Amino acid sequence: MPKIQNKTENKIRVRFKSYDHRLLDKYLKEFVNVLKKEGVQIRGPVPLPTEIKRYTVNRSPFIYKDSREQFEIIIHKRLIDVINPTPRILEIFNSLDLPAGIEVEIKIY
């Protein structure tokens, strides 16, 4: 019976969040181009389900309490996996110049 090799691959999972999907997509296009220039294999950007938070607020606390306003915040998310990163890629992640309004979460597996 042939042996199955257990191929372990290192991976960095980068998760981006933003309220503005246009800003997020524009930044990710630049980010992917930088990673491709370094010659690293990537998976993504994968769009994750948008998170919608809704808030209902009373307009008046006493007589007109049935009158309410509703607000919502939509959070757009994207995911990029970097397969077998080099130390140079880790330096690039440390020197990220993020625009205001984009949050990044980096996990190393």
List keywords for this structure.
single chain; 109 residues; alpha+beta; 4-stranded antiparallel beta sheet; 4 strands; 23% helix; 45% strand
What does this molecule look like?
This protein is α+β, with helices and mostly antiparallel strands. Helices cover 23% and strands 45% of the residues. It has helices at 21-37, 87-94; strands spanning 11-18, 41-58, 68-83, 102-108. It has a four-stranded antiparallel β-sheet with strand order 2-3-1-4. The longest helix is centred in the first third of the chain and has 17 residues, at 21-37.
Task: Please summarize what this structure is.
The protein is of the alpha+beta class and 109 residues long. The chain has helices spanning 21-37, 87-94; strands spanning 11-18, 41-58, 68-83, 102-108.
Secondary structure layout plus pairing:
Layout: E1 11-18, H1 21-37, E2 41-58, E3 68-83, H2 87-94, E4 102-108
Antiparallel strand pairs: 1-3, 1-4, 2-3
Q: State the share of residues found in helices, binned by percent.
A: 10-25%
Q: Note the total helix count.
A: 2
Number of strands: 4
**Helix/strand/pairing class, anyone?**
alpha+beta
Globular, elongated, flat, extended or rod-shaped: what is the shape? elongated
Q: Give the CA-CA distance, first to last residue.
A: 31 Å
Numbering strands along the chain, what is their spatial order in the largest sheet? 2-3-1-4
Secondary-structure element series: EHEEHE
Largest sheet: 4 strands, antiparallel
Rg measurement, Å: 21 Å
Low-confidence stretches: none
Mean pLDDT: 88
